[in-house]
Amino acid sequence: MKRTFFLTFVLLCGLLLSVGALAQGEAFGPVRSAIRNSSSRELAQFFAPNVELSFDGDKQSYSATQAEFVMKDFFAKHSPASFDFIHYGGSNDGTPYAVGKYTGKDGAYRMFVKMKQADGGPKIATIDFTKE
């Protein structure tokens, strides 16, 4: 009886964790598509009013409009050959984030994207590119 209860508990926990990971992944689906298409306009639809962009440790805060132009310039200089998120997670307060691998024509980058609640839904608050 105890063994059956334990196995049921473990399976239920595993199911809940996988559903949570899928839900987080779904929030980042349109973001992944915009990055793969190197579309700063499409990506900007998911920006919070203020976005922190970081390129190899050089962090700056931009308005959503300014961030769109910064990303447009980045995509022009480093167009993606491939991109995918490799890990999804959430902080203790429920802030979703994703880690991805962005391969451009000049090399590979580790990409970190963090969202926050703004304007009634999750919006991108931080994008961090670190050259590998």
Give a structural overview.
The protein is an alpha+beta fold and about 130 residues long. It has a single domain, classed as Roll (Nuclear Transport Factor 2, Chain: A), CATH 3.10.450. It has helices at about 1-35, 40-45, 65-75, and strands at about 45-55, 60-65, 80-90, 95-105, 105-120, 120-130. It starts with a helix and ends with a strand. The relative contact order is 0.17.
Keywords, please?
single chain; 132 residues; alpha+beta; Nuclear Transport Factor 2, Chain: A; six-stranded mixed beta sheet; 41% helix; 44% strand; globular; signal; DUF4783 domain-containing protein; DUF4783
Structural class: alpha+beta
Kindly provide the radius of gyration, computed on alpha-carbon positions and rounded to a whole number of angstroms.
17 Å
Query: For the residues shown, what is the average pLDDT?
Result: 84
Major pleated sheet: 6 strands, mixed
Tally of discrete structural domains: 1
From the N-terminal CA to the C-terminal CA, the straight-line distance is: 51 Å
The CATH C-level class name: Alpha Beta
Shape: globular
Q: What is the chain-wise order of helices and strands?
A: HHEEHEEEE
Number of helices: 3
Query: In the CATH hierarchy, what is the architecture at level 2?
Result: Roll
Helix content: 40-55%
The overall strand count is 6
CATH topology: Nuclear Transport Factor 2, Chain: A
Strand order of the largest sheet: 2-1-6-5-4-3
Task: Outline the low-pLDDT stretches.
Answer: 5-24
Q: Give the DSSP E fraction (strand runs of 2 or more residues).
A: 35-45%
Pfam family, one: DUF4783
Protein name: DUF4783 domain-containing protein
Signal peptide: 1-23
InterPro entries: DUF4783
